[in-house]
TrEMBL record:
Protein name (database record): Carnitine O-acetyltransferase
Keyword check for Cell cycle: no
Catalytic residue positions: 346
Family of this protein: Belongs to the carnitine/choline acetyltransferase family.
UniProt xrefs under Gene3D superfamilies: Chloramphenicol acetyltransferase-like domain, Choline/Carnitine o-acyltransferase, domain 2
GO BP: any one term: carnitine metabolic process, CoA-linked
Amino acid sequence: MVSRFLRNVSKQAIWAHQRLAPPAKFSSMAIHKGDMLSRQSELPKLPVPPLKESVDKYLESVKPFLSQAELVTTRKLAQELVAPGGVGETLHKLLQDRATKTDNWLSDWWLEGAYLGYRNPVVVYSSPAMAMPRQEFKDFKHQFAYAASLVQAVLDFKAHIDNETMSTEVQGKAPLDMMQYKNILGTHREPHIPLDKLFHARDSKHIVVAYQGNFYEVKVYDTEGRQLATAQILQQLHEIRVDSLEKGKGPQVGILTTQHRDLWAQSFENLSAHPKNRQSLQRIRDAIILLCLDDPLTEVTPWSTVSAQQLLVGGKNGENAGNRWCDKAIQFIVGLEGNVGLLYEHSPAEGPPVAGLLDFCAKQASVWPIPPEQSPFRPEKLDFTINVGIGQDIQVARNDLKKLVDNLELSLETYGKYGKDFVKSCGLSPDSYIQMAIQLAFYRTHNCPGACYETATLRRFLGGRTETIRSCSEESVRFCRTFLDNQANVKDKVGSLRTAVEAHKRYTNSAVAGLGVDRLFFGMKRIASEAGIQIPNFFFDKSMVVSTHFRLSTSQVAAKSRSVMFYGPLVPDGYGCCYNPGNDYILFGLSDYKDCPTTNLDDFRSSLRDSLDQMRDYLVADSIKSKL
Ligand code: COA
């Protein structure tokens, strides 16, 4: 069997499973293992953060959102939690026991809680998209040629992963866990109730191409295990076009993968009942990636919005929504208008390894000037028999997606006045600085602080996933107020900015060191449920609700190419704000919901620009002043 059933995640997490897996063999070349995993043994185990210090850190983080009276109640509950011999101590001890018995006390729970057990549609709510630099295609031939070279780039990247020839990434001097790279290609999330299942096809030799809502299996290695030539892949793409135009558009079955997971799980069971469908589903499940060759869009401007819509939800008017299979970990999308990028199902990995794949492809892929060449294989159409029930489910999924898309605002922004270099030259952390710009933009737009989720990687630890950086702090609020105060002078403004950036950097450093608060609390609640212990009142306090109502869902996903990630907001009255800081520019992927009366993406976007402008202007003014 090429695929592995990874359902029992608590016993066999993906990363644990794959460490045990023998190396894949795709190439006829003698496989010489590189050093990608050579530092895995140096990775420490994720610590269980100390209870008292974590609770103190939490109490600091909730101050911007509570009145004095509310803070008194929160402190009282916190004292009860950390009291010697109390339930907090018991839960903490249980977590420490778990940490000694497992490679990573958190990862399996996180995989279940954040992903496989999360029931909202993966589209908008969970799967991020990444837009690559725009291409110019004269016609479908250019589109297909680019797509074929993109596939070749994916296969080259896969060879690096399989042969472990990538360098180990580091954070400072600390090596990072590289196993997430092993999880991104050939992985598939299948809908089940109450938990989805993850599959990983280690020895897969095919991709699946979606065209006009039809799905085709395309073999990409010859019988000796060598990658096909780009021109041979291209030939198969052309054959797909001819076949699809002859047979007509597909039944749009892929749109079911955009549904609520329980609904999709029911349709999936119904669909799988037919042997032919089952076979097609398995071929999709075991594919290395999905390649989506999209039909023309019905609206093509403004680019910053329509390309984002195409990549995240299949187009403003759902033109290409059925041309997707959103359970596949990686779907590359190549639109006729030159919009290219990917949509990725989040459960197996975080953004940075996906950005690594994308950077590699962005550098390597090009419009192939050579005509197609005969391939040893022909693409095979994956047929679906659609019964009445499934036909109705497709219609419902289409309507549900339309409501979601109609309500979603997206925008890809380039801030071109400066980037990381300027911020570093001021002696400030670029990430913390951008976070403060986001805080200021929110404060300026809403006249109040915005609780903010920023992703911190835990890949310094074996099997590490993420921790939350609580970017909104007392210092960030003081900075926002000072910056918006016309009476404050340059020195005060710059002083408040530096203090806020430093406070954020301190929190970041503790989060990446495995000493945040959110995953500890997640773990304490989870272990209480497992041990049949009542969850302490502390976890139901108002402070918990307001400080985790993340109106700002943010993340830095650094890419070398001018590419940017984006996703939907976390809460109905929030913003999604992902960024890629270049040396002299910053790319942002922004989102909000239209039906929220309080959010406004246009205002937020211009506030973000104003904030970045002003922060630079004051820093420059301050430095000129100090030189005088
Ligand atoms: N003065 C001058 N330079 C500074 C500085 C200062 N005070 N502070 C930091 N810098 C430099 C750093 O040395 C670094 O230099 P480099 O570009 O040569 O490596 C650079 O600025 C960037 O550092 P910084 O902006 O502080 O951020 P970071 O790179 O440490 O990243 C996180 C911080 C939180 C983004 C990172 O730790 C992380 O977790 N990334 C992954 C997030 C993730 O998983 N996202 C995906 C979610 S799907």
